[in-house]
Design a protein that fits this description.
One of its GO terms (molecular function) is transmembrane transporter activity. The chain is mostly helical and about 100 residues long. The protein has one domain. It is about 80% helix and about 0% strand. It has four helices and no strands. It is flat.
């Protein structure tokens, strides 16, 4: 259950990062509210997952899901460049996440 909550927390991190971008510096009400709601949900689920998962594993997985998810949203929705170097960086982050998961007990 902790792993499911951690993955959900990471996905919620992607939602709040995207909505923060859409809020244009918290100048738009609806995306600002979405940002705050999903931020609280993401942190709450992370805290729940940390009850049974090691800090280093949980936090690394959470930030990694957020980083790669936000990277993909940037490319797929916001039209950000998908250069070879950026793609390699994302692959290395995912490789690190897989290794972190495999190394946890």
């Amino acid at each position: 259950m902790a792993w499911f909550m951690l993955i959900l927390a990471g996905l919620f991190e992607v939602v709040w990062a995207y909505s923060m971008k859409m809020s244009e510096g918290f100048s738009k009400l609806t995306p600002s509210i979405v940002t705050l709601v999903f931020m609280v949900l993401s942190f709450a689920l992370l805290a729940y997952a940390m009850r049974s998962l090691p800090l280093g594993t949980a936090y690394t997985i959470w930030t990694g899901i957020g980083a790669v998810g936000s990277f993909l949203i940037g490319i797929l929705i916001l039209g950000e460049p998908a250069t070879a170097m950026r793609m390699l960086a994302a692959v290395l982050i995912v490789a690190g996440l897989v290794l972190m998961k495999l190394s946890s007990t």
